[in-house]
Amino acid sequence: MISEVNIANHYTHGNLLNAIKIALSKAGHTLDSVSAEQLTAIDEFHIGGREATTQLLNGITFAAEAQLLDIGCGLGGTTRYLASHYTSYVTGIDLTAEYIKVAQVLNQKLGIAERINLLQASATSLPFADDSFDGVTMLHVGMNVADKQALFADVFRCLRENSLFLIYDVMKTNKDTVNYPLPWASTSDTSYLSSLDSYQRKLKAVGFNVVAINSRKDFALDYFKRQSGKIATNGVKPLLSLHTLIQDNAKLKFSHLIDQISSNALTPIEIIVKKPG
């Protein structure tokens, strides 16, 4: 489990709650006054943020009071969206203990804690009974998971029949050497990029049926362009952003990511699969 420890260390800030408080204060807010919408700049740690979350879930319906799981929940942005948008009960897991602790504070402040349960846990060893969930989401997590087939098998086990598993990951799309650091890994030691073909084969091997596949390359490049445009217009970076999470080399990490999406070495891709009935 050394790799998982190193991955958790990569994401650990050390003083994250205080950093968020300071950023909010500079923007004229406090933890008691901030809204869930204002937190989306930091609590949706995947390309496209809340916009990408809503697009992944576009057209997806869950029954009222559905039991949902978000793998790699981070600071809980997606779990809060699921709980509020679908009036569902949501469980979130993440390797990084600090993320879980800060997310629990945010849930309390936003008055949504009673609908969300957050746990520190591994994606390849889910601590849940068979057939526990009516849907599972996983946004930008597979890049840190070495044994994806074990992950997919455990998700399949925990899902109820006729339920969806929604994935949004960065995948390797050509044979170019990947340049690090990247937002999810400083070196290749904790990065486990795979191809779309590999994802599909492993998902099908454990029993999933593929429902939809969507390349999000154009969306990602447009998103980064719009973010750069806002910074250029305002003259400064937003006070609360993913840079608050990524303390070291944030600019270099995102520069590498954008360059490699542009060159088609990497592509963010959605895969939606279903556990058959």
TrEMBL record:
Gene3D superfamilies: Vaccinia Virus protein VP39. Signal peptide: none annotated. The keyword Endoplasmic reticulum does not apply. Pfam families: Methyltransf_11. SUPFAM superfamilies: S-adenosyl-L-methionine-dependent methyltransferases. One of its GO terms (biological process) is methylation. One of its GO terms (molecular function) is S-adenosylmethionine-dependent methyltransferase activity. Keywords: Methyltransferase, Transferase, Ubiquinone. InterPro entries: Methyltransf_11, SAM-dependent_MTases_sf. Residues 69-167 form the Methyltransferase type domain. Pathway: Lipid metabolism; Phospholipid metabolism. This is Ubiquinone/menaquinone biosynthesis C-methylase UbiE. It comes from Thalassotalea piscium.
